[in-house]
Structure formats: structure tokens, C-alpha cells
Amino acid sequence: MADTGPLPAASSLRDTLPGGAFLRAGLRGGHWVLSSQIITSAANLATTVVLLRGLGLEAFGQFSLCFLFLMVVRNFFHGAILAPSSTLAPRLRSTSLNAFRGVLVIVTLGFAIVSSGVVALLAYVLAPVLQVDWLTGLILPLVAANVAGCFADLISRYHLIYARPQRTFGTEVVRYAVQLGLLIILVALGAAWLSPAVALLVLATGSVAAVVSGVIGHAQLTYSKRLFRVLWPRYWNFVRWMSLSNFFETVQTLAPMLVGLALLGEAALGVLRAVSQLTNILNLPTNALQQLLPISGTKVYKSGGSKGLTRMLASVIGLVLIYFLVVSAALFALSPWISNFLFDQTPATFLAILLWFVAANLFISARQVMSTVFVVKERPQNMLLIQGVSAVVAVLLPFAAVIVGVIAVPISVAVSTGVGMAICYRRARQEMRNG
Known about the structure:
This protein is an all-alpha fold. Helices cover about 85% and strands about 0% of the residues. It starts with 9 loop residues before the first helix and ends with a helix.
């Protein structure tokens, strides 16, 4: 990556740049990242609709459990590997960036192997506990989707690190075009051609296509043992804290859905997962910025200090809130049609589920932006407290499903994420006061 020269003095930036200017300075290339996230969110929503229509609620519930496993692994991967990579890269000299790609491949390969083993073991353990014997038959497709997905996420973040966001957009287009195209063809061929296992293999195929398109035309892979020895302690600082934090986030994500599956069955899980996926479009800006904010925040903090970072994040939250209000209003207005088209639910029940998932996504969006402070300042231990408390709440509340039914699951998700957001705000504010 070409050297762009020194940044302006920190003092001049602190004194002259308003929040909007810090936002523009920190989020260069953000339109490509946002475009990539639009593609991702739209494709995931379209995939949900296609699979719901092609598989039916029960089989879609089976696929949804596997997809939740993949999302949990992805959270671990982003927190322990990709986020620190985005923070460390801007601190490296331009001459070290070529060797840095070798470090990225090594740690990704190790993570993919270990996480696949954990997912396989978890599937074997949960199958008899939840009385879902079909889960063991999906382990191989699940592992394939996991390994391919890790490298697809790596190649996407790789281009951001090397200031090529347009290539990130290109890889996402290839990934989801292949994925959606294959699923539509299989649905058109008939129900006999589509199953949860086939759907997972289609996800893996799309990820492989993204990796292939992302590596074409790039320099030969290099690796430096010396650079790895220098960077690994910094990675380990994230891994040791973020692994515990992501474990609690896993509990927070999986516990409500698993309790819903155990008490209410695969069809209920399918409904919950579909509504959750629908409301994920509310997180479109923050999911895009989750990739960019560690890089941009590090640059802004380096040049503008805590004051500059605070202004940038405040501007981001303001823009996200405007988007959130507009899209939420559209979802509520369309809720009767969505309920009739996709789900066997009464409009009132669907609206209640939608309301609580919307609240949960609002809390998640705010927390994601504020947690940038912990990544930039290399204080991942703060996330451990946030996720730990949230996980305890998420484990206890879903059992109310015995009394109030399926609505208990989104309530537990919203309450647990709300508690986490409140703690995140207090800790982030404290970190910024400390300079």
C-alpha cells in the first residue's frame, strides 16, 4: 500500500475539526463498505425468503440452528482476529504490510481448524440433549461452510486493511450472487433438490467463489516469522479477552434460540430466526462500520486523541439513529403483509415479535459503535464484563416461554442487549475520560 505521508498534527486537528470533519477523515472509502453491507444484508434477507419458501418452516428451523453456529463462529473470528488486524495494520510501516498478509492467513487457518472442531463437538453434544438427531447429519456441510466462510471474511477484511474497499464490494457481490443463484436454481428444480445440508454447501460454494475472486491479481503471499513473533502478543491480548467475551456473547445469542427450540420446536425457531434476519437490516450501517471503525477510529485517535474519537463516534451514532427510525417505521407499516406472506402467525403475534427484535437491534447498534473505543485503545477486557452480564440475563429469561410462549425469546434478547448497551456506555465514557 502506498505511503500517504504523515497525518496533520494532533493539536491542530483537535482544535479545528468538528465532529463531521472527523467523521469524513476517519471513514474514507466508507461508501464502498456501506455498499458491501447493503449487498450482504439484502442477500441474507433474500436467502432467508428463498429458503423459507423452498424448505418450509421446520426444515428452515434446522438450517437456522446451523446458521446460528456459523454466526457465533463469525463473531469470534471478527472479535479475536479481524478486529485486532484492522487495529494493528495502521500502526505498521508500509514495508511490513506485505508480510502481514502471511500472518493473516496463518491465524485464519488456525482459527478455522479449531472452530470447526468445536462446532462439530458442540453438534454431537447438543443433538441428544435437544433431541434433534438430524443435527449430527449436518456436521460435514456445517464444517465446510465454516472454513470457507472464515476465509471469505478474511479476504473481505484484507482489502479494507490494504485500502481497497472496492475489491471488498466485488468479493461480496460474487459471494452472494453465486449463493443466491444456486439456491434459486435448486428451488426451481423442486423440493427434492433442496435440504438443510445442500443449503449449507451452497453457502460454502459462495464463500469459495468470493475467495477466488478476491485473490486474483494480487502479489505473491509472503510470511515473516519475525513479524509474527512481534504481532502475536498483541493478537493474544485480544484473543484471551475476546474469547471469554465472545463465549458470553455466544451464550447470549444461542441460549434464547436453543431454549425456544427445546420448548417450542423447529418451526418456532424458524419463525424467530426469520424475523431476526428481517430486523437485521436495521443494523446495516453499524455492520458496515464494524469493519471500518477499528481502522478509522485508530487513525482518528492517533491524530485527534480522545476528543476526536468521541466526535467521530457521536456523528456516527446520530446518522445511524436517523436510518434506524426511518427503516423501523417502514417495517411496522409493512408488518401485516410480511406476516401473511412468510409466516403462519397472527399479525398481533408477529408485530410483538418484531417490536422486541427491533428494540434489540437498536441496543446492538449503539453498543457496536461505542465498543470501538475498547478496540482502538486495546482494552478488550471491557467487553468481557458487558457480555458476561448480558449472557446471564439471556440464559434466565427465555424459560418464560413455558408461560408466555414464543414472545419470551425476543424479549430476552432485547433485555439482555439493553443491559449490555448500558454497561458499554458507562465503560466507554470512562475510557474516554482517561484519555
